[in-house]
Protein backbone atom coordinates (compact mmCIF):
# COMPACT_ATOMS: atom_id res chain seq x y z
CA UNK A 1 0.00 0.00 0.00
CA UNK A 2 2.76 2.45 0.93
CA UNK A 3 4.51 1.76 -2.37
CA UNK A 4 1.28 2.51 -4.19
CA UNK A 5 0.87 5.81 -2.33
CA UNK A 6 4.41 6.74 -3.17
CA UNK A 7 3.82 5.99 -6.84
CA UNK A 8 0.65 8.06 -6.76
CA UNK A 9 2.49 10.98 -5.17
CA UNK A 10 4.17 11.48 -8.55
CA UNK A 11 0.81 12.76 -9.80
CA UNK A 12 1.10 15.93 -7.72
CA UNK A 13 2.80 18.23 -10.25
CA UNK A 14 0.43 17.08 -12.99
CA UNK A 15 -2.85 17.83 -11.25
CA UNK A 16 -4.05 20.00 -14.13
CA UNK A 17 -3.37 17.37 -16.77
CA UNK A 18 -5.16 14.85 -14.62
CA UNK A 19 -8.20 17.09 -14.15
CA UNK A 20 -8.49 17.96 -17.83
CA UNK A 21 -8.21 14.27 -18.64
CA UNK A 22 -11.01 13.50 -16.21
CA UNK A 23 -13.27 16.25 -17.55
CA UNK A 24 -12.90 14.88 -21.08
CA UNK A 25 -13.46 11.39 -19.73
CA UNK A 26 -16.66 12.18 -17.87
CA UNK A 27 -18.10 14.05 -20.82
CA UNK A 28 -17.29 11.18 -23.15
CA UNK A 29 -18.93 8.72 -20.76
CA UNK A 30 -22.01 10.93 -20.76
CA UNK A 31 -22.06 10.92 -24.57
CA UNK A 32 -21.64 7.17 -24.55
CA UNK A 33 -24.49 6.67 -22.09
CA UNK A 34 -26.79 8.88 -24.15
CA UNK A 35 -26.55 6.50 -27.10
CA UNK A 36 -28.63 3.56 -25.71
CA UNK A 37 -31.27 5.97 -24.50
CA UNK A 38 -31.47 7.52 -27.97
CA UNK A 39 -31.88 4.05 -29.46
CA UNK A 40 -34.66 3.31 -26.98
CA UNK A 41 -36.34 6.59 -27.89
CA UNK A 42 -36.08 5.81 -31.62
CA UNK A 43 -37.58 2.32 -31.17
CA UNK A 44 -40.39 3.09 -28.74
CA UNK A 45 -41.50 6.44 -30.16
CA UNK A 46 -40.21 6.36 -33.73
CA UNK A 47 -40.57 2.77 -34.91
CA UNK A 48 -43.42 1.65 -32.67
CA UNK A 49 -45.20 4.98 -33.16
CA UNK A 50 -44.39 4.87 -36.93
CA UNK A 51 -43.08 8.48 -36.91
CA UNK A 52 -40.26 9.03 -39.39
CA UNK A 53 -39.45 12.50 -38.05
CA UNK A 54 -38.69 11.13 -34.59
CA UNK A 55 -36.40 8.50 -36.11
CA UNK A 56 -34.61 11.22 -38.10
CA UNK A 57 -34.16 13.42 -35.03
CA UNK A 58 -32.82 10.48 -33.05
CA UNK A 59 -30.39 9.67 -35.88
CA UNK A 60 -29.06 13.25 -35.96
CA UNK A 61 -28.64 13.20 -32.19
CA UNK A 62 -26.80 9.87 -32.48
CA UNK A 63 -24.38 11.34 -35.05
CA UNK A 64 -23.70 14.35 -32.80
CA UNK A 65 -23.15 12.13 -29.80
CA UNK A 66 -20.75 10.05 -31.89
CA UNK A 67 -18.72 13.10 -32.98
CA UNK A 68 -18.59 14.47 -29.45
CA UNK A 69 -17.44 11.10 -28.23
CA UNK A 70 -14.64 11.04 -30.83
CA UNK A 71 -13.30 14.48 -29.91
CA UNK A 72 -13.51 13.81 -26.22
CA UNK A 73 -11.76 10.47 -26.64
CA UNK A 74 -8.87 12.26 -28.30
CA UNK A 75 -8.57 14.79 -25.48
CA UNK A 76 -8.80 12.06 -22.89
CA UNK A 77 -6.23 9.77 -24.53
CA UNK A 78 -3.76 12.58 -24.99
CA UNK A 79 -4.08 13.85 -21.42
CA UNK A 80 -3.43 10.49 -19.82
CA UNK A 81 -0.63 9.65 -22.21
CA UNK A 82 1.02 12.99 -21.39
CA UNK A 83 0.63 12.24 -17.71
CA UNK A 84 2.33 8.86 -18.07
CA UNK A 85 5.19 10.19 -20.21
CA UNK A 86 5.85 13.07 -17.82
CA UNK A 87 6.01 10.79 -14.82
CA UNK A 88 8.28 8.32 -16.65
CA UNK A 89 10.57 11.21 -17.48
CA UNK A 90 10.66 12.38 -13.89
CA UNK A 91 11.34 8.93 -12.51
CA UNK A 92 14.21 8.26 -14.92
CA UNK A 93 15.61 11.71 -14.29
CA UNK A 94 15.48 11.17 -10.54
CA UNK A 95 17.00 7.72 -10.83
CA UNK A 96 19.90 8.94 -12.93
CA UNK A 97 20.53 11.92 -10.71
CA UNK A 98 20.50 9.68 -7.68
CA UNK A 99 22.78 7.06 -9.23
CA UNK A 100 25.29 9.80 -9.94
CA UNK A 101 25.43 10.65 -6.26
CA UNK A 102 25.82 7.10 -5.02
CA UNK A 103 29.24 5.98 -3.89
CA UNK A 104 31.62 3.57 -5.58
CA UNK A 105 30.84 0.89 -3.06
CA UNK A 106 27.22 0.85 -4.22
CA UNK A 107 28.23 0.16 -7.81
CA UNK A 108 30.52 -2.64 -6.69
CA UNK A 109 27.58 -4.37 -5.04
CA UNK A 110 25.04 -3.70 -7.81
CA UNK A 111 24.82 -5.31 -11.23
CA UNK A 112 24.86 -2.75 -14.01
CA UNK A 113 22.24 -4.77 -15.89
CA UNK A 114 19.90 -4.74 -12.90
CA UNK A 115 20.23 -0.97 -12.63
CA UNK A 116 19.54 -0.59 -16.31
CA UNK A 117 16.48 -2.82 -16.07
CA UNK A 118 15.11 -0.65 -13.29
CA UNK A 119 15.64 2.56 -15.23
CA UNK A 120 14.00 1.10 -18.34
CA UNK A 121 11.60 -1.81 -17.81
CA UNK A 122 10.46 -0.95 -14.30
CA UNK A 123 9.87 2.71 -15.07
CA UNK A 124 7.98 1.51 -18.12
CA UNK A 125 5.67 -0.57 -15.94
CA UNK A 126 4.92 2.52 -13.85
CA UNK A 127 4.38 4.53 -17.02
CA UNK A 128 1.82 2.00 -18.24
CA UNK A 129 0.11 2.14 -14.85
CA UNK A 130 -0.40 5.89 -15.11
CA UNK A 131 -1.52 5.56 -18.66
CA UNK A 132 -4.15 2.91 -17.89
CA UNK A 133 -5.29 3.04 -14.31
CA UNK A 134 -6.33 6.63 -13.40
CA UNK A 135 -8.37 6.78 -16.58
CA UNK A 136 -9.83 3.29 -16.45
CA UNK A 137 -10.61 3.43 -12.78
CA UNK A 138 -12.81 6.50 -13.03
CA UNK A 139 -14.22 5.46 -16.38
CA UNK A 140 -15.11 2.00 -15.12
CA UNK A 141 -16.42 3.07 -11.75
CA UNK A 142 -18.31 5.98 -13.34
CA UNK A 143 -19.90 3.76 -15.95
CA UNK A 144 -20.62 1.05 -13.42
CA UNK A 145 -22.36 3.40 -11.00
CA UNK A 146 -24.23 5.34 -13.67
CA UNK A 147 -25.40 2.22 -15.47
CA UNK A 148 -26.39 0.50 -12.23
CA UNK A 149 -28.49 3.51 -11.25
CA UNK A 150 -30.15 3.56 -14.66
CA UNK A 151 -30.81 -0.18 -14.50
CA UNK A 152 -32.35 0.09 -11.04
CA UNK A 153 -34.56 2.97 -12.16
CA UNK A 154 -35.80 0.97 -15.16
CA UNK A 155 -36.57 -2.24 -13.33
CA UNK A 156 -35.06 -2.79 -9.93
CA UNK A 157 -35.70 -6.53 -9.70
CA UNK A 158 -34.09 -7.24 -13.03
CA UNK A 159 -31.19 -4.95 -12.09
CA UNK A 160 -30.67 -6.68 -8.75
CA UNK A 161 -30.60 -10.10 -10.39
CA UNK A 162 -28.23 -9.15 -13.19
CA UNK A 163 -25.83 -7.31 -10.85
CA UNK A 164 -25.77 -9.94 -8.10
CA UNK A 165 -22.43 -11.15 -9.47
CA UNK A 166 -20.60 -7.96 -8.42
CA UNK A 167 -19.69 -9.10 -4.87
CA UNK A 168 -18.21 -12.31 -6.29
CA UNK A 169 -16.20 -10.17 -8.66
CA UNK A 170 -14.80 -8.08 -5.83
CA UNK A 171 -13.72 -11.22 -4.02
CA UNK A 172 -11.94 -12.61 -7.08
CA UNK A 173 -10.19 -9.25 -7.59
CA UNK A 174 -8.79 -9.04 -4.08
CA UNK A 175 -7.51 -12.59 -4.28
CA UNK A 176 -5.92 -12.09 -7.67
CA UNK A 177 -4.19 -8.81 -6.90
CA UNK A 178 -2.44 -10.32 -3.87
CA UNK A 179 -1.15 -13.20 -5.92
CA UNK A 180 -0.22 -11.06 -8.93
CA UNK A 181 2.01 -8.67 -7.02
CA UNK A 182 4.38 -11.46 -5.98
CA UNK A 183 4.41 -12.96 -9.43
CA UNK A 184 5.19 -9.65 -11.09
CA UNK A 185 7.96 -8.90 -8.64
CA UNK A 186 9.56 -12.20 -9.63
CA UNK A 187 9.16 -11.35 -13.30
CA UNK A 188 10.81 -7.94 -12.87
CA UNK A 189 13.66 -9.38 -10.79
CA UNK A 190 14.32 -12.02 -13.40
CA UNK A 191 14.21 -9.40 -16.14
CA UNK A 192 16.98 -7.62 -14.25
CA UNK A 193 19.03 -10.81 -13.98
CA UNK A 194 18.62 -11.44 -17.69
CA UNK A 195 19.68 -7.86 -18.51
CA UNK A 196 22.70 -8.21 -16.24
CA UNK A 197 23.89 -11.32 -18.09
CA UNK A 198 23.27 -9.62 -21.42
CA UNK A 199 25.14 -6.49 -20.38
CA UNK A 200 28.13 -8.45 -19.12
CA UNK A 201 28.34 -10.48 -22.31
CA UNK A 202 28.11 -7.44 -24.55
CA UNK A 203 30.74 -5.58 -22.56
CA UNK A 204 32.95 -8.66 -22.52
CA UNK A 205 32.30 -9.73 -26.11
CA UNK A 206 36.01 -9.92 -26.87
CA UNK A 207 36.82 -12.10 -23.91
CA UNK A 208 33.93 -14.45 -24.67
CA UNK A 209 35.17 -14.93 -28.24
CA UNK A 210 38.83 -15.08 -27.30
CA UNK A 211 38.16 -18.00 -24.99
CA UNK A 212 35.68 -19.61 -27.38
CA UNK A 213 33.01 -19.50 -24.69
CA UNK A 214 30.13 -18.54 -26.99
CA UNK A 215 28.24 -21.81 -26.44
CA UNK A 216 28.55 -21.75 -22.68
CA UNK A 217 27.55 -18.09 -22.50
CA UNK A 218 24.62 -18.68 -24.84
CA UNK A 219 23.47 -21.49 -22.57
CA UNK A 220 23.79 -19.24 -19.52
CA UNK A 221 21.82 -16.47 -21.18
CA UNK A 222 19.26 -19.00 -22.47
CA UNK A 223 18.72 -20.36 -18.99
CA UNK A 224 17.95 -16.90 -17.63
CA UNK A 225 15.78 -16.12 -20.62
CA UNK A 226 13.79 -19.30 -20.17
CA UNK A 227 13.39 -18.56 -16.49
CA UNK A 228 12.03 -15.14 -17.40
CA UNK A 229 9.64 -16.73 -19.87
CA UNK A 230 8.43 -19.24 -17.26
CA UNK A 231 7.79 -16.55 -14.69
CA UNK A 232 6.11 -14.27 -17.20
CA UNK A 233 3.88 -17.11 -18.35
CA UNK A 234 2.99 -17.95 -14.78
CA UNK A 235 1.94 -14.36 -14.17
CA UNK A 236 0.15 -14.31 -17.52
CA UNK A 237 -1.78 -17.50 -16.75
CA UNK A 238 -3.05 -15.97 -13.52
CA UNK A 239 -4.07 -12.82 -15.39
CA UNK A 240 -5.82 -14.94 -18.01
CA UNK A 241 -7.62 -16.97 -15.37
CA UNK A 242 -8.78 -13.82 -13.66
CA UNK A 243 -9.98 -12.33 -16.95
CA UNK A 244 -11.85 -15.56 -17.67
CA UNK A 245 -13.58 -15.48 -14.28
CA UNK A 246 -14.53 -11.83 -14.77
CA UNK A 247 -15.88 -12.45 -18.27
CA UNK A 248 -17.93 -15.44 -17.14
CA UNK A 249 -19.44 -13.45 -14.28
CA UNK A 250 -20.25 -10.68 -16.75
CA UNK A 251 -22.01 -13.16 -19.06
CA UNK A 252 -24.12 -14.38 -16.16
CA UNK A 253 -25.76 -10.96 -16.13
CA UNK A 254 -26.85 -11.37 -19.75
CA UNK A 255 -28.46 -14.71 -18.91
CA UNK A 256 -30.50 -12.91 -16.27
CA UNK A 257 -31.73 -10.39 -18.84
CA UNK A 258 -32.91 -13.07 -21.27
CA UNK A 259 -34.49 -15.29 -18.67
CA UNK A 260 -35.98 -12.89 -16.15
CA UNK A 261 -36.34 -9.93 -18.54
CA UNK A 262 -38.25 -12.09 -21.03
CA UNK A 263 -40.69 -13.05 -18.27
CA UNK A 264 -41.14 -9.42 -17.30
CA UNK A 265 -41.97 -8.48 -20.90
CA UNK A 266 -44.49 -11.33 -21.13
CA UNK A 267 -46.01 -10.16 -17.83
CA UNK A 268 -46.29 -6.67 -19.28
CA UNK A 269 -43.95 -5.05 -16.74
CA UNK A 270 -41.36 -4.12 -19.35
CA UNK A 271 -41.55 -2.94 -22.97
CA UNK A 272 -39.44 -4.60 -25.68
CA UNK A 273 -37.61 -1.29 -26.17
CA UNK A 274 -36.81 -1.18 -22.48
CA UNK A 275 -35.53 -4.73 -22.53
CA UNK A 276 -33.31 -3.85 -25.50
CA UNK A 277 -31.97 -0.76 -23.71
CA UNK A 278 -31.45 -2.86 -20.60
CA UNK A 279 -29.44 -5.33 -22.65
CA UNK A 280 -27.29 -2.58 -24.23
CA UNK A 281 -26.65 -0.98 -20.85
CA UNK A 282 -25.59 -4.30 -19.43
CA UNK A 283 -23.19 -4.78 -22.35
CA UNK A 284 -21.80 -1.34 -21.49
CA UNK A 285 -20.80 -2.49 -18.02
CA UNK A 286 -19.24 -5.77 -19.07
CA UNK A 287 -16.51 -3.68 -20.70
CA UNK A 288 -15.52 -1.78 -17.52
CA UNK A 289 -15.72 -5.02 -15.59
CA UNK A 290 -13.29 -6.61 -18.01
CA UNK A 291 -11.07 -3.52 -17.78
CA UNK A 292 -10.87 -4.25 -14.09
CA UNK A 293 -8.62 -7.21 -14.84
CA UNK A 294 -6.21 -5.12 -16.84
CA UNK A 295 -6.25 -2.44 -14.18
CA UNK A 296 -5.59 -4.79 -11.31
CA UNK A 297 -2.66 -6.45 -13.06
CA UNK A 298 -1.23 -3.07 -14.13
CA UNK A 299 -1.39 -1.92 -10.54
CA UNK A 300 0.18 -5.09 -9.23
CA UNK A 301 2.95 -4.76 -11.75
CA UNK A 302 3.52 -1.08 -10.97
CA UNK A 303 3.78 -1.84 -7.27
CA UNK A 304 6.34 -4.56 -7.93
CA UNK A 305 8.33 -2.22 -10.16
CA UNK A 306 7.92 0.72 -7.82
CA UNK A 307 9.42 -1.39 -5.06
CA UNK A 308 12.51 -1.94 -7.23
CA UNK A 309 12.81 1.69 -8.31
CA UNK A 310 12.39 3.08 -4.80
CA UNK A 311 14.97 0.62 -3.52
CA UNK A 312 17.55 2.59 -5.50
CA UNK A 313 16.13 6.01 -4.67
CA UNK A 314 16.27 5.12 -0.99
CA UNK A 315 19.97 4.26 -1.09
CA UNK A 316 21.83 6.90 0.86
CA UNK A 317 25.06 8.07 -0.72
CA UNK A 318 27.71 6.93 1.76
CA UNK A 319 30.13 9.61 0.70
CA UNK A 320 28.75 13.13 0.57
CA UNK A 321 29.73 16.68 1.45
CA UNK A 322 29.24 17.53 5.12
CA UNK A 323 26.66 20.21 6.05
CA UNK A 324 28.93 23.26 6.25
CA UNK A 325 31.57 22.07 3.82
CA UNK A 326 34.84 23.91 3.22
CA UNK A 327 35.45 25.07 -0.32
CA UNK A 328 38.52 23.34 -1.73
CA UNK A 329 39.14 25.56 -4.75
CA UNK A 330 42.14 27.30 -3.10
CA UNK A 331 43.98 24.31 -1.67
CA UNK A 332 47.77 24.34 -1.94
CA UNK A 333 48.12 20.61 -2.22
CA UNK A 334 49.73 19.40 1.02
CA UNK A 335 48.67 15.80 1.63
CA UNK A 336 49.00 13.91 4.86
CA UNK A 337 48.03 10.35 5.77
CA UNK A 338 47.72 9.92 9.52
CA UNK A 339 47.61 6.27 10.68
CA UNK A 340 45.32 5.38 7.82
CA UNK A 341 43.85 1.91 7.64
CA UNK A 342 41.38 0.86 5.02
CA UNK A 343 39.47 -2.24 4.09
CA UNK A 344 37.02 -2.42 1.22
CA UNK A 345 33.39 -2.70 2.24
CA UNK A 346 32.35 -6.35 2.42
CA UNK A 347 35.98 -7.47 2.51
CA UNK A 348 37.27 -8.42 5.93
CA UNK A 349 40.97 -7.90 5.13
CA UNK A 350 42.67 -4.55 5.43
CA UNK A 351 44.08 -3.36 2.09
CA UNK A 352 45.99 -0.57 3.85
CA UNK A 353 47.19 -0.80 7.41
CA UNK A 354 48.44 2.07 9.56
CA UNK A 355 49.91 4.26 6.82
CA UNK A 356 51.39 7.65 7.74
CA UNK A 357 53.27 10.13 5.58
CA UNK A 358 53.40 13.85 4.84
CA UNK A 359 53.67 15.40 1.36
CA UNK A 360 54.44 19.12 0.94
CA UNK A 361 52.77 21.11 -1.83
CA UNK A 362 54.61 20.63 -5.10
CA UNK A 363 56.38 17.46 -4.00
CA UNK A 364 56.48 14.46 -6.27
CA UNK A 365 55.82 11.10 -4.67
CA UNK A 366 56.40 7.73 -6.28
CA UNK A 367 54.56 4.69 -4.92
CA UNK A 368 56.27 1.37 -5.54
CA UNK A 369 55.01 -2.04 -4.67
CA UNK A 370 54.07 -5.42 -6.04
CA UNK A 371 50.70 -5.91 -7.62
CA UNK A 372 47.88 -5.93 -5.11
CA UNK A 373 49.92 -4.10 -2.50
CA UNK A 374 47.45 -1.21 -2.32
CA UNK A 375 48.81 1.59 -4.51
CA UNK A 376 45.53 2.22 -6.34
CA UNK A 377 43.66 1.88 -3.07
CA UNK A 378 45.83 4.49 -1.39
CA UNK A 379 45.30 7.15 -4.04
CA UNK A 380 41.54 6.43 -4.14
CA UNK A 381 41.33 7.81 -0.61
CA UNK A 382 42.53 11.28 -1.64
CA UNK A 383 39.52 12.26 -3.83
CA UNK A 384 37.29 10.31 -1.40
CA UNK A 385 36.28 7.53 -3.72
CA UNK A 386 36.23 5.66 -0.45
CA UNK A 387 36.51 6.92 3.12
CA UNK A 388 39.18 5.62 5.45
CA UNK A 389 38.24 2.87 7.87
CA UNK A 390 40.58 4.30 10.50
CA UNK A 391 42.84 7.36 10.75
CA UNK A 392 42.63 10.54 8.68
CA UNK A 393 43.58 11.81 5.23
CA UNK A 394 44.31 15.54 5.35
CA UNK A 395 44.75 18.10 2.61
CA UNK A 396 46.34 21.37 3.75
CA UNK A 397 45.93 20.10 7.28
CA UNK A 398 42.17 19.63 6.99
CA UNK A 399 40.37 16.29 6.96
CA UNK A 400 39.25 15.53 3.37
CA UNK A 401 35.83 14.69 4.78
CA UNK A 402 35.35 18.35 5.73
CA UNK A 403 35.70 19.64 2.17
CA UNK A 404 32.98 20.19 -0.37
CA UNK A 405 33.22 17.03 -2.45
CA UNK A 406 32.78 18.62 -5.87
CA UNK A 407 35.31 21.37 -5.35
CA UNK A 408 37.77 18.87 -3.88
CA UNK A 409 37.56 16.53 -6.85
CA UNK A 410 37.87 19.44 -9.24
CA UNK A 411 41.28 20.19 -7.79
CA UNK A 412 42.54 16.65 -8.23
CA UNK A 413 43.67 15.43 -11.65
CA UNK A 414 43.42 11.72 -12.10
CA UNK A 415 44.66 9.25 -14.65
CA UNK A 416 43.42 5.83 -13.67
CA UNK A 417 44.71 2.40 -14.51
CA UNK A 418 41.74 1.55 -16.71
CA UNK A 419 40.91 4.49 -18.93
CA UNK A 420 37.40 5.13 -20.09
CA UNK A 421 36.70 7.47 -22.96
CA UNK A 422 33.18 8.53 -23.81
CA UNK A 423 31.61 8.08 -27.25
CA UNK A 424 32.13 11.71 -28.17
CA UNK A 425 34.87 13.60 -30.01
CA UNK A 426 38.50 13.60 -28.87
CA UNK A 427 38.11 17.29 -28.06
CA UNK A 428 35.14 16.69 -25.78
CA UNK A 429 36.94 13.79 -24.12
CA UNK A 430 39.90 16.01 -23.28
CA UNK A 431 37.65 18.84 -22.12
CA UNK A 432 35.57 16.43 -20.04
CA UNK A 433 36.39 18.06 -16.72
CA UNK A 434 36.39 21.60 -18.11
CA UNK A 435 33.89 21.93 -20.97
CA UNK A 436 34.58 25.67 -21.11
CA UNK A 437 38.27 25.22 -22.02
CA UNK A 438 39.36 27.02 -25.20
CA UNK A 439 41.01 25.43 -28.23
CA UNK A 440 44.55 26.55 -27.27
CA UNK A 441 44.27 25.06 -23.81
CA UNK A 442 43.03 21.75 -25.20
CA UNK A 443 45.88 21.58 -27.71
CA UNK A 444 48.42 22.56 -25.09
CA UNK A 445 47.24 19.78 -22.80
CA UNK A 446 47.29 17.30 -25.68
CA UNK A 447 50.83 18.33 -26.59
CA UNK A 448 52.02 17.89 -23.03
CA UNK A 449 50.50 14.42 -23.00
CA UNK A 450 52.24 13.58 -26.31
CA UNK A 451 48.81 13.10 -27.85
CA UNK A 452 48.68 16.01 -30.27
CA UNK A 453 50.57 14.31 -33.11
CA UNK A 454 48.52 11.16 -33.26
CA UNK A 455 45.29 13.13 -32.82
CA UNK A 456 46.16 15.18 -35.90
CA UNK A 457 46.54 11.92 -37.83
CA UNK A 458 43.01 10.75 -36.93
CA UNK A 459 40.43 11.09 -39.74
CA UNK A 460 38.88 14.26 -38.30
CA UNK A 461 41.60 15.37 -35.92
CA UNK A 462 40.17 16.65 -32.67
CA UNK A 463 36.65 16.14 -33.99
CA UNK A 464 37.07 12.38 -34.40
CA UNK A 465 34.47 10.55 -32.40
CA UNK A 466 36.01 7.67 -30.51
CA UNK A 467 33.88 4.54 -30.35
CA UNK A 468 32.30 3.05 -27.28
CA UNK A 469 35.05 2.86 -24.69
CA UNK A 470 37.36 4.21 -27.39
CA UNK A 471 37.77 0.86 -29.14
CA UNK A 472 39.15 2.52 -32.21
CA UNK A 473 42.16 3.84 -30.24
CA UNK A 474 45.06 1.85 -28.88
CA UNK A 475 45.60 1.48 -25.16
CA UNK A 476 48.50 3.93 -25.21
CA UNK A 477 46.54 6.48 -27.22
CA UNK A 478 43.66 6.29 -24.77
CA UNK A 479 46.06 6.77 -21.88
CA UNK A 480 47.53 9.87 -23.45
CA UNK A 481 44.07 11.37 -23.97
CA UNK A 482 43.34 10.60 -20.33
CA UNK A 483 46.53 12.38 -19.31
CA UNK A 484 45.56 15.43 -21.39
CA UNK A 485 42.16 15.33 -19.75
CA UNK A 486 43.71 15.37 -16.27
CA UNK A 487 46.18 18.14 -17.16
CA UNK A 488 43.48 20.40 -18.56
CA UNK A 489 41.88 20.48 -15.11
CA UNK A 490 44.97 22.40 -13.91
CA UNK A 491 44.84 20.35 -10.73
CA UNK A 492 46.68 21.07 -7.47
CA UNK A 493 47.14 17.38 -6.94
CA UNK A 494 47.93 15.14 -9.89
CA UNK A 495 47.56 11.39 -9.59
CA UNK A 496 48.98 9.14 -12.27
CA UNK A 497 48.15 5.49 -11.62
CA UNK A 498 50.42 3.68 -14.06
CA UNK A 499 49.43 6.33 -16.55
CA UNK A 500 52.12 5.37 -19.02
CA UNK A 501 51.95 1.60 -18.65
CA UNK A 502 50.60 1.13 -22.18
CA UNK A 503 53.01 3.37 -24.08
CA UNK A 504 56.42 2.50 -25.49
CA UNK A 505 59.61 3.53 -23.73
CA UNK A 506 60.25 6.42 -26.10
CA UNK A 507 56.79 7.95 -25.68
CA UNK A 508 57.04 7.32 -21.96
CA UNK A 509 60.26 9.38 -21.92
CA UNK A 510 58.60 12.17 -23.90
CA UNK A 511 55.57 12.21 -21.59
CA UNK A 512 57.81 12.22 -18.51
CA UNK A 513 59.70 15.21 -19.84
CA UNK A 514 56.54 17.13 -20.64
CA UNK A 515 55.07 16.23 -17.28
CA UNK A 516 58.24 17.34 -15.54
CA UNK A 517 57.40 20.90 -16.39
CA UNK A 518 53.70 20.46 -15.67
CA UNK A 519 54.29 18.86 -12.32
CA UNK A 520 56.56 21.61 -11.14
CA UNK A 521 54.11 23.45 -8.94
CA UNK A 522 51.71 20.60 -8.23
CA UNK A 523 51.72 17.77 -5.78
CA UNK A 524 52.03 14.59 -7.79
CA UNK A 525 51.51 10.93 -6.95
CA UNK A 526 52.94 8.52 -9.45
P1 LIG B 1 48.41 -3.10 -9.11
O1 LIG B 1 49.88 -2.81 -9.14
O2 LIG B 1 48.12 -4.44 -9.66
O3 LIG B 1 47.60 -2.04 -9.71
P2 LIG B 1 47.72 -2.10 -6.50
O4 LIG B 1 48.90 -1.90 -5.64
O5 LIG B 1 47.15 -0.91 -7.17
O6 LIG B 1 48.01 -3.25 -7.55
P3 LIG B 1 45.13 -2.31 -5.26
O7 LIG B 1 44.32 -2.27 -6.49
O8 LIG B 1 45.19 -1.09 -4.44
O9 LIG B 1 46.62 -2.80 -5.58
O10 LIG B 1 44.60 -3.51 -4.35
C1 LIG B 1 44.98 -3.70 -3.02
C2 LIG B 1 44.17 -4.83 -2.42
O11 LIG B 1 42.81 -4.47 -2.32
C3 LIG B 1 44.21 -6.10 -3.23
O12 LIG B 1 44.38 -7.18 -2.36
C4 LIG B 1 42.87 -6.18 -3.90
O13 LIG B 1 42.45 -7.52 -4.00
C5 LIG B 1 41.97 -5.40 -2.98
N1 LIG B 1 40.96 -4.64 -3.72
C6 LIG B 1 41.19 -3.77 -4.71
N2 LIG B 1 40.04 -3.21 -5.15
C7 LIG B 1 39.05 -3.76 -4.42
C8 LIG B 1 37.64 -3.60 -4.37
N3 LIG B 1 37.01 -2.76 -5.18
N4 LIG B 1 36.95 -4.34 -3.49
C9 LIG B 1 37.58 -5.21 -2.66
N5 LIG B 1 38.89 -5.39 -2.65
C10 LIG B 1 39.65 -4.69 -3.50
MG1 LIG C 1 46.71 -0.43 -9.09
Question: Would you kindly provide a brief summary of this structure?
Answer:
With 526 residues, the protein is of the alpha/beta class. It is built from 17 helices and 8 strands. The strands form 2 sheets. The protein has a 4-stranded antiparallel sheet with strand order 2-1-4-5, with no helix packed on it. Strands 3-8-7-6 form a 4-stranded parallel sheet.
Comma- or semicolon-separated keywords:
7% strand; single chain; elongated; 526 residues; four-stranded antiparallel sheet; binds magnesium ion; alpha/beta; 66% helix; binds adenosine-5'-triphosphate; four-stranded parallel sheet
How many helical elements?
17
Overall outline: elongated
Which class best fits the helix and strand makeup? alpha/beta
Radius of gyration: 34 Å
Polypeptide structure, described:
The chain is an alpha/beta fold. It contains 17 helices and eight strands. Strands 2-1-4-5 form a four-stranded antiparallel beta sheet, with no helix packed on it. β7, α17 and β8 form a beta-alpha-beta unit. α2 runs antiparallel to α3, α7 runs antiparallel to α9 and α9 runs antiparallel to α10. It is elongated. The model has no long low-confidence stretch (mean pLDDT 88). The structure holds adenosine-5'-triphosphate and magnesium ion.
Amino acid sequence: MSVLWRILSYLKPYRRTLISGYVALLLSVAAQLAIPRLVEFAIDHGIAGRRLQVILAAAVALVLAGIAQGLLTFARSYSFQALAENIAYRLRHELYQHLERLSFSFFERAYTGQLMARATEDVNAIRRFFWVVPRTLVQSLGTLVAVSVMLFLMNWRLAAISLSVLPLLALATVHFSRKARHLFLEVQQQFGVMTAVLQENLAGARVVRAFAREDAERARFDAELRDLQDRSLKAASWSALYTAVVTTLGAAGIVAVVWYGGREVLAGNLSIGQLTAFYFLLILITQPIRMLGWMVSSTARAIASGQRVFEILDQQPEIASPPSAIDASRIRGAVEFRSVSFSYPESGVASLYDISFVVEPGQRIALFGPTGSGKSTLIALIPRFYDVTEGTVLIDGIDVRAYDLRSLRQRIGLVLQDTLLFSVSVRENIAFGRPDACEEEIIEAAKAAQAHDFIMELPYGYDTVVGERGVSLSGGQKQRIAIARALLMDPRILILDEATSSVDAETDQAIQQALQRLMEDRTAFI
